[in-house]
Structure formats: structure tokens, C-alpha cells
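1st attempt posting a full record on here, be nice pls
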Amino acid sequence: MFQRKRLLSVASRVHLLIPGRTMSSLDRIHFGPYEVTEQVFLRTPHSFALVNIKPLLPGHVLVCPIKPHKRLTDLSLPEVTDLFSTTQRVQRMLARHYFRSSQGRNGAPSESSQPPPSPDDGSFNIALQDGARAGQTVPHVHVHILPRIPGATDKDPGPTDEIYEQMAHEDGNVGGALWDRDVSMKGRPKPGGQFPRIEDSSRQARSLEDMVAEADIYRAVLRDMEEP
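the predicted structure (as C-alpha cells):
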């Protein structure tokens, strides 16, 4: 119970700080070399969750350790435990938000006679590309969470799933999209060249305003989900 209250306290503090953009440099959050503070909707003692600049599907978000570890084996036991417990927590939040809509309730609060949607009401892809040769484009451990909304974004019948192909190609190039965004912003340091400029005519990186709006939605769902 104490740990639960502590996690809720941390998450609430981030919710209050991020929208106002009044935090100090110590509060700013980085994903590899990129500042992503305003994309973050949850922070725990060792992890944070953020919306994706180029999501493959609605609700495609990332969970990362706060320390910029490059490989999963670099994490301590408390960090690993927190990373995957946070992943489960975000799954429950996404299920409540997206699987509810897929059942025709359009995001309205659940009726008291009905339990809120759970991960069992849909499916998820959970992926971690551990190292550059596995497709990791930002040198910072991150778990991809993709809700598969019943009747909308669930897997087509057949032996393969295009999501895995997209994650390995330009569609899933999170590092390339962040590089594109940051070098176009004045005053931002240019990364060391490991991310070439990407030309992607079919999918465009989202604006910061769009990502902040999505993060606000997820924070509200988390508050509603975790109120006693």
C-alpha cells in the first residue's frame, strides 16, 4: 500500500508540472539525447512512459528507464522490476481508454454495474529492441506497447503480423523522427550523426501539441483508474 501511494504521488507531481512548463532542468526527462518532457504522462521511481512521435497504431506508447541505459542487461533488479510493472500499469490504462471505445462506449465513464475494460478485453503487442542490430534507433532501453483494439487494429487472420515488419523499417524509426524534429528546432544541439535525416512522405511526425494533448488524456485516465 505504501509503494502504491508513493507511485501515485510521483505520477501526480509530473501531471502538475508538465502542462505548465515550469519545471527546473532537474525535472526534465530525456529519451536518449532527446528531451521528451512534455510527451511524458507517467513517471515512477525508476521509469517513465511517453507518447510516441510516430505511432504505428493508436495508443502506441513507450516505457523507458529514467537512467539512459542502452541495453536491458544494464538495468539493476529494481529498475527491471519497475520497468515491467510500469508496462503492466500502462497496459491497464490503455485497455480502459481504447478497449472501452471499441465496445461502443466512446470513452464515457463505465456504468457502475459494469467493470471497466481490462487487458483481457483486447490484445497487445509488447516489444523491446535490445541493441542497434535488433532495430533500436534510440540508444536508450524502451518497451513498445501497442494496443490491438478489437474490430479496429487487431491482427488480420494469417501467419504474419505487419506490425513487426513496420517496427523494423522506417515506419517504426522513432530515432529518425526525433532527429528530424530536433534539428529543425532553433537552439537544439545536433546529434552526432548516427541518425540520418529521414524522408518519409507517407507518415509524418506529429506536432508537440498533438503529443501533449494525448499525454493529457492518458494522465486523466490514470487518475480515474487509480483513485481509491
